[in-house]
Each structure stands twice: as structure tokens, then as C-alpha cells.
């Protein structure tokens, strides 16, 4: 029996990184189900976040900005699934939507991009580092209080060009994003998670659907990665206990190894002088609890002025 195409409409932002991720999900679906590529139609949706490029972004209200219009399209049934960087997703989703799963996670680490040199040690005192991430800024200040960290926003290309031109001496980017864009060679080094923790969800591509749309979910479930799903459940539960607003420097990373999950989380003051760390282990069937407990213990440890109540 022939069925009219497309079978699924996939919503995504239009940035090169978002499009790569959307195509990765389409490729996984098409390969698994042995469909024609046209069976998954990619629908590009412009979000508020795409329209704002200055500091107003962080004041305007954080994470939802890159997902709002896409989630509205899902709820209005203009698309059947949405693909996002897991890192850019808030911990609370709109009613009626859920994350059905993730592609196998890529390298979670941050990369350092230097104009000259090969490691953090090669940056001279006073060197100018650009980032828009409070988490990266605080961790960098902790390791190198002598550096000058200032705001550098824009897509990956923009940030790289401002280092190349000399406007900045260095910047930090997720190695996963650079790799997806074919630019892993721009990384001078990748920072070990032992002293530089990634954002919750970093390196993972999330697939969001309507909660009660079992027909769609049944097509997606076979291509999602269970271990990544467990890790993200831990990390997102941890973040939900602490902050959804992304105004506090927070890092978190869960690693699934056999039957055990190891979670590590950090919270810092903006200037990096205060640093709180937690490490917890738990079994696979207690992923949610592991993240919640880690988050609550972290909250109990951190001075209240570092976290929103
Ligand atoms: N905030 C933008 C964003 N969202 C996801 C990635 C990288 C890809 C990933 O982490 O999966 C990036 C760029 C960056 O932080 O370097």
C-alpha cells in the first residue's frame, strides 16, 4: 500500500547547526524505516531568539526563546516532531509536549579556540576571551582569574571570525557543535570535564513530540539512544532542582557505564571565586532520583544568593 508523503513533518531552527541536527534525525528515521528521504519534511521555523542578537537576549528571558515558536507549531499540529540542541531546552516544557528521546550523544566537552597557542596555559595574562555563557565565564575565571572575559555573542562562524580578526584572543565553544559544522580543526584543545564541566544536555540532540501522539512516538522510539536518555534524565532533574533561568553558572554531566550512572555537578559564583561541586552514583533504574537528590544537595550547600529561589 502506498502512503502519501511526507509521513512526518520535522520542525527546526534555520541555523547551520540546527539544520545539521535536523538532518541527522531525518537520516536516522529514514535509515531505520527504509523510507524515501522525502518521507520526512524539514520545516524551518524562525524563533524569537534568532531575531535578537545582543545582550537583550539574556534579559528577555532565557531559554524558551529558541523553542517557543517551534513548540507552538507542534501544539498546533503544523509539525509532528521538533529537533533541538538538548542544551537549549528549559527544564519545563509546555503542557502536552515531551522529549521522546535523543540521538546518541556526541563529545560533551567544551573546546578552547585560541588565535595563538594550543592550550589555556598559552593565553597571556590579560588576554581577552569572548563568551556569552555565564557557565563558561565563571569556570574560566576560576581557572584563570587574570583573563579579561567579555560578551561575545553570535553563531559559531561569527565567534570564530572575531578571534581570527584579533578582536578576541580566544573563545569557547562546544566541540560537538564545531564537529557537526565540520570545524573541529578550529579547536585548539578540548577542556577536560574534570576542571571544566559542560552544560546540562551539551552534545545531545533532543526530539520533542506531542505527549499523546503515540503514532509519532512509535516511529521515533526505535532510533533514540537509551543511555543518552538516562544521562539526560539525571542532568535535567538536577537542573530543575536548581534553576531554569540560566542566570547562575551551573554545570552538570551524567555518565552511564554498565549498570551505574555517575553524576557530577558544579555551581559557581559569576566571578568564579565560589565553587561548589557534587559527585553522586546511582543505578540506571534510579536516574530521576539521582538527579533530583544531587540537585537538592547542591541547593543545600550553595549560599542562597547564588541561586534563584
Ligand atoms: N547555545 C548554542 C548551542 N547549542 C548547542 C550548541 C552546541 C551543540 C551541542 O551542545 O549539542 C551550541 C553552541 C555552543 O555552545 O558552542
TrEMBL record:
Pfam family, one: Porphobil_deam
CC cofactor: dipyrromethane
GO molecular function: hydroxymethylbilane synthase activity
Function according to Swiss-Prot or TrEMBL: Tetrapolymerization of the monopyrrole PBG into the hydroxymethylbilane pre-uroporphyrinogen in several discrete steps.
Cofactor note: Binds 1 dipyrromethane group covalently.
Source organism of the structure: Ancylobacter radicis
Keywords attached to this entry: Porphyrin biosynthesis, Transferase
Domain Porphobilinogen deaminase N-terminal: 8-216
Quaternary state and interactors: Monomer.
Record's catalysed reaction(s): 4 porphobilinogen + H2O = hydroxymethylbilane + 4 NH4(+)
Transferase is among the record's keywords: yes
S-(dipyrrolylmethanemethyl)cysteine: residues bearing it: 246
Highest taxon of source: Bacteria
Protein name: Porphobilinogen deaminase
EC number: 2.5.1.61
Domain (Porphobilinogen deaminase C-terminal) ranges: 232-299
